[in-house]
Structure formats: structure tokens, C-alpha cells
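Incident review: delayed structure delivery

Summary: a single-chain prediction request sat in the queue longer than the usual turnaround. Root cause was a stuck worker, restarted by the on-call engineer. No data loss occurred. The affected request and its eventual output are reproduced below so the record is complete for anyone auditing the incident later.

Affected input:
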Amino acid sequence: MLNNLTLEELIGLKLELAAKAAGGVYYGMPIWSALPNITKDAILKYAYSATKSKMEAARFLGINKVRFNKLLKQYKTENYFEENN
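Output delivered after worker restart:
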């Protein structure tokens, strides 16, 4: 069923579920201005988890390995996967 949803629908569904979990109050959060960082964080996590190496993930994103490593530190991506294992 999830495969039939568009990315936009999936994001909307996730926001709706997050609002319900917060008691229906999601106002005052700077969602719009945070979207670029939220999106980059999600894509970085996907690239990190879907590839076999950091070099491959960097190539997938179209950046060099130095930039990729800086992004991993900036978004604390490796910590995210260590905590969730």
C-alpha cells in the first residue's frame, strides 16, 4: 500500500501522524524554514543506508568524500544509525 503513495503523500501522512502524536498541536514550529535541512538529512540517511560504502554514498549524492564526511558529522548520521541498532 505504501508503494502506491507519492512522496508528497507520504510526507503529508508522516506530518499528520506526528501532529497526532503531539496532541494535535503542531503550530508554531518552523517547518517551512526547516524543510531544506529535513530533506537533506533524510536523503543523507538514505544514501548512507542504501550504499555499501561512504565513497559510493558520496558518488550517489554527487559530492566528494570530504564533503560527505562533513555532512555526516553535521547531521550526526552515523550516531543515528548506531542508536537505532
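Verification: The mean pLDDT is 88.
Action items: add queue-age alerting; document worker restart procedure.
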